[in-house]
Amino acid sequence: MPVLMRRPFGGRVSEELGARSIANGDAVPRHDLLPFAQAAAATTFLPHCRNAKCKSGWMKLWRSRQAPILEGMWACSAACMQELVQTAVLREMSERSAQNVVHKHRVPLGLVLLSRGWITQEQLKCALEAQKKAGSGRLGEWLIKQKAVGEDQITRALGAQWNCPVLSSDSYDPAAMAAMFPRLLMDSLNVIPLRLAGRHLLYVAFEERVDRCLVLAVERMLGLKVEAGVLPASEFRRRQGEILRASFPKTRLLEAMNMRGLVHAFTGMMEENKPVQAKIVRVHDYFWLRLWRNSLLAEDSKAVPGIPDLEDMVCALAAAD
Ligand SMILES: [Zn+2]
After folding, report:
1. What confidence tens digit (pLDDT) does each residue in 132-183 have?
2. Distance from the CA of 7 to the center of ligand 1, in angstroms?
3. What does the alpha-carbon distance between residue 279 and residue 277 come to, in Å, rounded to a whole number?
4. Worst-scoring range by mean pLDDT, 11-20, 75-84, 120-129, 246-255?
5. Beta-ladder partners of 69
6. Å from CA of 41 to ligand 1 middle
7. CA–CA distance, 14 with 299 (Å, rounded to integer)
C-alpha cells in the first residue's frame, strides 16, 4: 500500500514522480486517479519502494531513479529491485495450474479418427505397427503416408482432440508476429503467433499439441486474449520456417544453475536496461523476462510494441532447487 507522506520537498519532484507513476500503467495507485488539484493538496502521496523489506525510507526519493519498473512496481535501489524480481520468480515457480492443464488426458488421435469413421480398425493397427517398428513419426504422419486419410482430416481430428479451431494462415505477417514471444518458444514448443484480431485477440497456431501453459503465459505477458488453434502440418511448417527467419526482439538466452542465479541475471538485466515496464512469466522450465523501453507503448499494454522497443531474456533452470 502507498505510504502517506508529508510533502518533504517542492512541487516539481512530486509532479515528476506522479507523472511517472501514471505513465507506467497497470499498477497505478488509487490516489493517482484523483484530480490533480486534489492530489496536490496539503499532503501528497508519493510512489514508494515496493520492496516490502525496504528500509531506506523516503530519502531515496531524492535519487534520480525512475526506472526500472517491474510489473508496475518501482524499487529505490538495485537491492530492492532484486527482492521484487525474486518475489516474481517465486510466484512463477509455485504456479502449478498451467502445468496441470497441459497434462490433462486427451482422447487419442486414433480414437477420434475411428469415431468419425475416417479410418478403419485395420488402418489404425497398420499405422501403429509401422510407427512402432520405425520408432519415430507421429501417428497422423503414418496414416497419411499409408493413404488412410488426408492431411485435412488429421488437422480436423487434432482440432477435435484439443477442442480448438482449425486456423487459416492467409495474410500472415511474420515480421510483425516476431514481436509476440521469443523464437526459442516458437521453435521448442512448435507454436507460432498467427495474427492479431483487432487490438485484443491474438491467434496462435500449434502443429500437433496445444500447449495451454504457453497460451496462459503469453496472455499474461502481452495483456491480450490468446486463442489457440491448429494448422495443417505442412502449412504450419512453412509458416514456422518463415517466422524463424524473421527479425526478433533482441533476446538473451541463458541457463542458471539455481534460482539465485536466475534472480541475479534478471535483476542485472533490469538494472542495465532500465525498462519502463517489464514482466516475468514462466513457460514450463523457461523463465521469460520481457522489457519495454518505450513509455508510450508501455502505457497501453494492449498495444503491440515494435521490435526495437522490446528486449527478452529467457532463462532455463539447470536443476530444480
Ligand atoms: Zn527500497
Report:
1. 999 988 899 999 988 889 999 999 999 999 999 999 999 899 999 999 999 9
2. 19
3. 7
4. 11-20
5. 74
6. 26
7. 20
State the first-to-last Cα distance of the chain, in angstroms, to the nearest integer.
31
Contact 304, 222 (CB under 8 A): yes
Grid look-up 526482439 returns 249
Interval 253-310: pLDDT, tens = 999 999 999 999 999 999 999 999 999 999 999 999 999 987 665 555 555 667 888 9
What's the 308 CA to ligand 1 centre distance in angstroms? 30
Query: Measured in angstroms, how far is the CA atom of residue 69 from the centroid of ligand 1?
Result: 13
- Per-residue pLDDT at 13: 38
Give the tens place of pLDDT for each residue, 183-206. 999 999 999 999 999 888 999 999
105 Cα to the center of ligand 1, angstroms: 46
C-alpha 267/C-alpha 271 separation (Å) is 6
Please check the confidence at residue 7 and state whether its pLDDT lies above 50.
no
Q: Which fold has domain 164-244?
A: GMP Synthetase; Chain A, domain 3 (3.30.300)
In whole angstroms, give the CA distance from residue 206 to residue 103.
16
Q: Do residues 84 and 73 make contact, with C-beta atoms less than 8 angstroms apart?
A: yes
Q: How far is the CA of 169 from the centre of ligand 1 (A)?
A: 48
Cα(132) to centroid(ligand 1), Å: 59
CA–CA gap between residue 142 and residue 20 (Å, rounded): 58
Q: How far is the CA of 92 from the centre of ligand 1 (A)?
A: 22
CA of 279 relative to ligand 1 center, distance in Å: 19
What are 59-84's pLDDT values in tens digits?
555 567 888 999 999 998 999 999 99
CA of 33 to the centre of ligand 1 (A): 24
Residue bearing cell 515496493: 50
